[in-house]
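Students often ask why we bother predicting the structure of a whole assembly rather than each chain alone. The short answer is interfaces. A chain on its own may look different once its partners are present, and contacts between molecules only exist in the joint model. In this exercise we take four input lines together and write out one structure for the complete complex. Read the inputs first and try to guess which parts will touch.
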Amino acid sequence: MQFSVRLPVATHILLCIEKFQGEYKTTSTFLAGSVNVHPVIIRKTLGQLRTAGLVEVAAGVGGAKLTRSPKDITLLDIFRAVEEEEDLFHFQENPNPQCPVGRNIHRVLGTRLEKIKQHMMDDLAAITLEELLNAVNEEDVP
Amino acid sequence: MQFSVRLPVATHILLCIEKFQGEYKTTSTFLAGSVNVHPVIIRKTLGQLRTAGLVEVAAGVGGAKLTRSPKDITLLDIFRAVEEEEDLFHFQENPNPQCPVGRNIHRVLGTRLEKIKQHMMDDLAAITLEELLNAVNEEDVP
DNA sequence: ATAGATGTAATAATATGTGTTACAATGGAT
DNA sequence: ATCCATTGTAACACATATTATTACATCTAT
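Now the answer. The structure tokens for the assembled complex follow.
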């Protein structure tokens, strides 16, 4: 079980938008060429990023740009833009309320798993697009 | 995107095995009654827990028991027993190596996501079956 | 031997993720 | 005003993962 490719792809898109700003028009086809997915996937993802307020996309003319500085965009912003807000783990719906384990498992285990998810969110929030962009620029191994 | 019901179900199973040890024979049908899933799901999950060395199952006669104390079984043990070992996020296979973002994204983002997964594993390792069992016993709200 | 139980394969139904085609709508360029 | 590259979005196809269920061979205390 793993999270989908959407966070990595969305992050890739945002990095390209910022890196190539002014140099190339970052159309869905251009971005698709870097990420290596179908342009429609790019457009769908850009749509989610636009809904989340992270990018502005020029309808008609084409191209996208960030709405704010890369230092103010975190992986958590991107994660929330492309993933549903839900529990980290799926719980069995109707455990037996006659059983002391059954009637307590969701609360007892759920609260603890909730905290783990919160840690994950905190970790994602600590990584900015700027940090990733710097790493790409400084550690580039052509 | 969320993890499957397997970790919660496996944890439920282990809690029941320990809680009802000596009182009831914890067969797949008995456990299925508490978890509210099909007995075959229980048997498959018990199979994974047995492979991981967490339980012994009495073939033929029926019933299961833990191989060690609940304080020595963590959620990480259970997680590893029922989930594949893989990256937390799925990466796009072939990003464009001509693009500075494309040829660095996997390493730059991957190493950071790897750390987040490690934190999650550490969090899971910090929660023991004993802690959960105590919580079930002490906070039981019938 | 029998009865109840496990181990496991096979199948089905459902959901999710990803790729693709198609096309209306947009908006600058001419 | 028209053209054309582009976006936005629906529709569909396909693969994979998850969960439920049936079936049955195997096991073991009695």
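Check your guess against this: Chain A touches chain B through 59 residues (CB under 8 Å).
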